[in-house]
Design goal:
Layout lengths: L1 E8 L8 E3 L6 E10 L3 H12 L5 E11 L4 E7 L3 H14 L4 E2 L12 E3 L12 E4 L1 E8 L6 E9 L2
Antiparallel strand pairs: 1-3, 1-9, 2-10, 3-6, 4-5, 4-8, 5-7, 9-10
Helix pairs in contact: 1-2
Length: about 160
């Protein structure tokens, strides 16, 4: 079973990097933890298709909140709605692959563009402008109990 997430890193990371899942570099969550019997190539194709028609996203740091079943601290993002549209397109594409999200409160109609508040990095401030220029598919190594994420694929938003 493939366990994965989809993010847009705010700083550059390299393809193949292995990162601690509990303290990833600052990123926007595009799809939180999910699992499927499909292979990485199928998931990557669905992600690329969902985001291919979008150029770089622009968003601004907003209010802080606690999201999901485990009430993780996050900074919500204000944008023109395109992050949510792209997320919903992705969810529809992944549904065909039998993808199950770990926390349904963070997907589909419950999705809110956000940046998790990191422990080891600077946080996104209210009013801070973000430009998202690429999307990364993270393979969560160790399955449902993963502690490491490998940057399995990245592609630019142009």
């Amino acid at each position: 079973m493939l366990h994965f997430a989809v993010v847009a890193f705010l700083d550059e990371v390299a393809l193949g990097d292995e990162l601690p899942l509990d303290d990833l570099p600052p990123h926007v969550v595009l799809l939180d933890r999910a699992a499927t019997e499909a292979d990485l190539g199928q998931v990557t194709a669905a992600v690329e298709l969902a985001y291919a028609s979008h150029g770089p996203f622009v968003a601004v740091g907003g209010d802080d909140d606690e999201l999901g079943q485990d009430a993780r601290p996050a900074t919500l993002l204000d944008d023109d709605g395109s992050l949510t549209v792209a997320h919903r397109t992705l969810v529809l594409g992944l549904r065909e692959l039998g993808v199950r999200v770990a926390d349904p409160a963070l997907a589909g109609g419950g999705y809110q563009p956000h940046v998790p508040v990191p422990e080891g990095y600077d946080r996104v401030d209210r009013g801070e402008r973000l430009e998202l220029r690429s999307v990364a598919v993270l393979e969560l190594e160790g399955g449902a109990r993963a502690t490491t994420a490998r940057v399995a694929e990245q592609f630019p938003l142009i």
